[in-house]
Amino acid sequence: MRRITAGVFVTLDGVVQDPGGFGEIEHGGWALNYFDEASAQHATESLLASDTFLMGRSTFETLERAWSRNTGPYAEAMHKIPKLVVSRTLTGPLPWNATALTGEAAETVADLKQGPGGGIIMYASFTLMRTLLKENLIDELNVSVHPLVVGEGKRLFDGVLPRSMEFVSATPSATGVVTLSYLASA
Protein backbone atom coordinates (compact mmCIF):
# COMPACT_ATOMS: atom_id res chain seq x y z
CA MET A 1 0.00 0.00 0.00
CA ARG A 2 1.23 3.49 -0.83
CA ARG A 3 1.93 5.88 2.05
CA ILE A 4 0.97 9.53 2.28
CA THR A 5 3.35 11.87 4.07
CA ALA A 6 1.77 15.26 4.72
CA GLY A 7 3.68 18.34 5.74
CA VAL A 8 2.36 21.61 7.08
CA PHE A 9 3.83 24.92 8.23
CA VAL A 10 2.03 26.31 11.28
CA THR A 11 2.42 29.30 13.59
CA LEU A 12 2.34 29.07 17.38
CA ASP A 13 -1.31 30.16 17.28
CA GLY A 14 -2.17 27.37 14.83
CA VAL A 15 -2.42 29.35 11.58
CA VAL A 16 -1.54 27.44 8.41
CA GLN A 17 -2.78 29.89 5.81
CA ASP A 18 -0.44 31.78 3.46
CA PRO A 19 3.02 30.84 4.76
CA GLY A 20 4.45 31.69 1.31
CA GLY A 21 2.96 35.16 1.01
CA PHE A 22 0.46 34.71 -1.81
CA GLY A 23 -1.80 37.52 -0.57
CA GLU A 24 -4.37 35.40 1.28
CA ILE A 25 -4.03 37.17 4.65
CA GLU A 26 -2.58 40.48 5.83
CA HIS A 27 0.48 38.86 7.44
CA GLY A 28 1.05 36.31 4.68
CA GLY A 29 4.58 35.14 3.96
CA TRP A 30 5.19 34.48 7.64
CA ALA A 31 7.31 31.35 6.95
CA LEU A 32 9.73 32.94 4.49
CA ASN A 33 12.14 34.32 7.11
CA TYR A 34 12.53 30.82 8.55
CA PHE A 35 13.33 29.04 5.29
CA ASP A 36 17.09 28.59 5.02
CA GLU A 37 19.41 26.53 2.85
CA ALA A 38 18.97 23.42 5.04
CA SER A 39 15.18 23.76 4.78
CA ALA A 40 15.40 24.06 1.00
CA GLN A 41 17.62 20.97 0.80
CA HIS A 42 15.24 18.96 3.00
CA ALA A 43 12.23 20.05 0.91
CA THR A 44 14.01 19.06 -2.30
CA GLU A 45 15.07 15.68 -0.90
CA SER A 46 11.50 14.99 0.27
CA LEU A 47 10.14 15.66 -3.21
CA LEU A 48 12.80 13.49 -4.85
CA ALA A 49 12.08 10.63 -2.41
CA SER A 50 8.40 10.57 -3.44
CA ASP A 51 6.89 9.64 -6.76
CA THR A 52 3.65 11.64 -6.50
CA PHE A 53 2.69 15.09 -5.19
CA LEU A 54 -0.93 15.19 -4.02
CA MET A 55 -2.84 18.45 -3.64
CA GLY A 56 -6.18 20.14 -3.87
CA ARG A 57 -7.28 22.48 -6.67
CA SER A 58 -6.61 25.77 -4.89
CA THR A 59 -3.09 24.75 -3.85
CA PHE A 60 -2.38 23.49 -7.36
CA GLU A 61 -3.45 26.77 -8.91
CA THR A 62 -1.38 28.80 -6.42
CA LEU A 63 1.75 26.65 -6.73
CA GLU A 64 1.50 26.38 -10.50
CA ARG A 65 1.40 30.20 -10.79
CA ALA A 66 4.24 30.64 -8.31
CA TRP A 67 6.58 27.77 -9.23
CA SER A 68 6.00 26.54 -12.78
CA ARG A 69 8.56 28.93 -14.29
CA ASN A 70 11.10 28.90 -11.44
CA THR A 71 14.53 27.30 -11.66
CA GLY A 72 16.90 25.73 -9.18
CA PRO A 73 17.04 22.32 -7.46
CA TYR A 74 13.70 22.60 -5.61
CA ALA A 75 11.88 24.03 -8.63
CA GLU A 76 13.31 21.32 -10.88
CA ALA A 77 12.11 18.64 -8.44
CA MET A 78 8.66 20.29 -8.43
CA HIS A 79 8.55 20.34 -12.24
CA LYS A 80 9.57 16.68 -12.48
CA ILE A 81 7.29 15.06 -9.90
CA PRO A 82 3.87 13.97 -11.19
CA LYS A 83 1.15 15.97 -9.48
CA LEU A 84 -2.32 14.64 -8.74
CA VAL A 85 -4.96 17.27 -8.07
CA VAL A 86 -8.09 16.22 -6.18
CA SER A 87 -10.87 18.42 -7.53
CA ARG A 88 -14.57 18.53 -8.20
CA THR A 89 -14.13 21.19 -10.89
CA LEU A 90 -10.95 20.34 -12.83
CA THR A 91 -10.75 17.41 -15.25
CA GLY A 92 -8.21 15.55 -17.31
CA PRO A 93 -4.57 16.41 -17.87
CA LEU A 94 -3.45 19.76 -16.48
CA PRO A 95 -0.37 21.90 -17.04
CA TRP A 96 2.83 21.44 -15.03
CA ASN A 97 2.91 17.64 -15.12
CA ALA A 98 -0.43 17.38 -13.31
CA THR A 99 -3.58 15.29 -13.63
CA ALA A 100 -6.97 15.91 -12.09
CA LEU A 101 -8.54 13.24 -9.88
CA THR A 102 -12.30 13.56 -9.70
CA GLY A 103 -14.82 12.06 -7.30
CA GLU A 104 -15.19 12.21 -3.55
CA ALA A 105 -11.81 13.09 -2.06
CA ALA A 106 -11.57 10.38 0.62
CA GLU A 107 -12.70 7.62 -1.72
CA THR A 108 -10.42 8.79 -4.55
CA VAL A 109 -7.37 8.99 -2.28
CA ALA A 110 -8.14 5.63 -0.64
CA ASP A 111 -8.16 4.08 -4.12
CA LEU A 112 -4.92 5.87 -5.00
CA LYS A 113 -3.23 4.42 -1.91
CA GLN A 114 -4.25 0.91 -2.97
CA GLY A 115 -2.78 1.33 -6.46
CA PRO A 116 0.75 0.85 -7.73
CA GLY A 117 3.51 3.31 -6.99
CA GLY A 118 5.69 4.65 -4.25
CA GLY A 119 5.43 7.40 -1.68
CA ILE A 120 2.95 10.24 -1.93
CA ILE A 121 3.85 13.65 -0.55
CA MET A 122 1.47 16.50 0.14
CA TYR A 123 1.54 19.88 1.80
CA ALA A 124 -0.76 22.83 2.05
CA SER A 125 -4.15 21.74 0.62
CA PHE A 126 -5.70 22.19 4.05
CA THR A 127 -9.26 21.31 3.07
CA LEU A 128 -8.03 18.09 1.50
CA MET A 129 -5.68 17.43 4.42
CA ARG A 130 -8.52 17.80 6.94
CA THR A 131 -10.64 15.36 4.93
CA LEU A 132 -7.81 12.83 4.77
CA LEU A 133 -7.08 13.21 8.50
CA LYS A 134 -10.76 12.59 9.31
CA GLU A 135 -10.67 9.41 7.22
CA ASN A 136 -7.30 8.26 8.62
CA LEU A 137 -5.68 8.31 5.16
CA ILE A 138 -2.53 10.21 6.11
CA ASP A 139 0.22 7.90 7.29
CA GLU A 140 2.71 10.48 8.52
CA LEU A 141 2.17 14.10 9.51
CA ASN A 142 5.08 16.55 9.78
CA VAL A 143 4.08 19.79 11.52
CA SER A 144 6.70 22.53 11.23
CA VAL A 145 5.96 24.93 14.08
CA HIS A 146 7.19 28.46 13.40
CA PRO A 147 8.02 30.70 16.38
CA LEU A 148 5.56 33.50 15.75
CA VAL A 149 1.92 34.46 16.27
CA VAL A 150 -0.01 35.72 13.23
CA GLY A 151 -3.44 36.16 14.82
CA GLU A 152 -5.59 35.50 11.76
CA GLY A 153 -6.05 32.81 9.15
CA LYS A 154 -7.17 29.25 8.64
CA ARG A 155 -6.17 26.60 11.13
CA LEU A 156 -5.45 23.02 10.10
CA PHE A 157 -7.40 21.11 12.69
CA ASP A 158 -10.69 23.04 12.56
CA GLY A 159 -13.39 20.40 12.21
CA VAL A 160 -11.08 17.39 12.61
CA LEU A 161 -12.31 14.81 15.09
CA PRO A 162 -10.12 14.11 18.12
CA ARG A 163 -7.53 11.45 17.38
CA SER A 164 -4.26 10.20 18.74
CA MET A 165 -1.11 10.06 16.68
CA GLU A 166 2.15 8.37 17.55
CA PHE A 167 4.99 10.82 18.18
CA VAL A 168 8.12 10.03 16.17
CA SER A 169 10.48 12.97 16.56
CA ALA A 170 11.03 16.67 17.10
CA THR A 171 13.63 18.21 14.82
CA PRO A 172 14.71 21.81 15.45
CA SER A 173 16.15 24.00 12.72
CA ALA A 174 18.77 26.72 12.99
CA THR A 175 16.01 29.30 12.38
CA GLY A 176 13.88 28.22 15.36
CA VAL A 177 11.34 26.07 13.54
CA VAL A 178 10.63 22.72 15.18
CA THR A 179 9.24 19.95 12.99
CA LEU A 180 7.11 17.50 14.93
CA SER A 181 6.66 14.15 13.17
CA TYR A 182 3.76 11.79 13.90
CA LEU A 183 2.52 8.49 12.55
CA ALA A 184 -1.18 7.77 12.23
CA SER A 185 -2.58 5.55 14.97
CA ALA A 186 -4.98 2.77 14.13
UniProtKB/TrEMBL annotation:
SUPFAM superfamilies: Dihydrofolate reductase-like. Transmembrane segments: none annotated. It holds the Pfam family RibD_C. Residues 4-178 form the Bacterial bifunctional deaminase-reductase C-terminal domain. It comes from the Bacteria. This is Dihydrofolate reductase family protein.
